Automatic annotation (TrEMBL):
Residues of the THUMP-like domain: 365-441
CDD domains the UniProt entry points to: AdoMet_MTases (cd02440)
Protein source organism: Frankia canadensis
Pfam families for this protein: Thump_like (PF18096)
Region of interest (Disordered), ranges: 267-319
Protein name: THUMP-like domain-containing protein
Amino acid sequence: MAGGAVDDPAARDRLAQLVALRTPSGAALLAEAAAAYGTSGGSSSTARELAVGARLRAEGVPAELVAAAFTQAELRRRAAAKFVLADRMFFTRAGLEQASSQAAAEHRASRFAGRARVADLCSGIGGDASALGPGREILLVDRDPVHLRMAELNAGVHGARTVRACLSDVRDVDLDGVDGVFVDPARRSGDRRLGSGACEPPLPWCFALTDRVGAVAVKAAPGIDLGQVPAGWEVEFVADGRDLKEAVLFSPELATSPRRATVLRAPSRGATPTAVPSTEAGRLGDEGVEPRGRAGAVSLVGSPDSTATESPVRVGEPGRYLYDPNPAVTRAGLVGELARQLDAWQLDPMIAFLTSDEAMATPFARLLRVEAQQPFDVRRLAADLRARGISALDIRRRGLAGDVDALRRRLLPRRRDLVPGGPAVTVVMTRLREEPWALICVPESPPG
């Protein structure tokens, strides 16, 4: 690693353990730890771990190295939800928590297609480097020597061949010759989460990187104040399923739309990661859906005020179907664009629920079939639910105040009221004609 010495004794010890785990005997130790850790968990798994750990220490393996191997076994199992090749990667607890998933990183890496030398600033354990590295030279920069070394190794696991690692504060790094920068500023300091909107280095410093490199992408919290984003930058909101994970800010050189909503899909187990193809970069597909990156992500693009300037979204009575837009869509201000694609309308101009009389498949909203509707009244609603013999209850609320958990207890005070094999019901609390309204819905399989 270039750029600085490792002065922290604890970091030197962890680096030494990492070196030891990469030897043939260390690989065998990792294999034993993974086998002992198992996949089922519970008391039997714990007993197995204790027995194997005790045997290894009795055989002369240093206790610290045994502990490091078992930590990696645990983290690799947890990381399998994020990375296809997790069983070959190295992690710390904090590094895994903060790392981008493989699907998010691969989707993002497509923006850098055609750029030969990319810098990954605040690289952490290399979640993004693993997608950025194949097919180009990559510069990794981080102040944590353990994370930096793990980022090198993890990028190599995913096919990166030309990797330079620099142990440094990102503000001190020479970016001459770099033609793309990705930066994931820290939102934690040690175990402490920084205040709302705060990060290190600060966002203004990240935006100013364009004074040196035109192509810049910045990862940010999904709750970012959009007033902080400079003019001409694109804001992409990324959800893993329906879980809104992050915002990514793209400089004008990389931007293709003011706003974007992206829904990630998990990579296929057993797939071999490869360099991200560039053929889809910057190209719109049919109906405003952009197939960027690999098949693990779909994007809805458009201007947040496009429907206001072209054709306002209709407002009307509930149809046969209800669409609950993905949080990435609502955060990106693209509910109107989604309504246009679905030929749907809103129940209220200020509420994101969409409705229509025809069911259409979309990755950008949950589809529900409206079974009944009524003015919101807890007692009447509870009686209706009991009469239906439901097996599960979900509550969605938009446009109305109230505690969802308290409402659930009033609608379903006893678990024995649930009927095995009965319908799973979603109660939608919203506003219609300026009145509190309830819709009783069931999940609907998209057509086709």
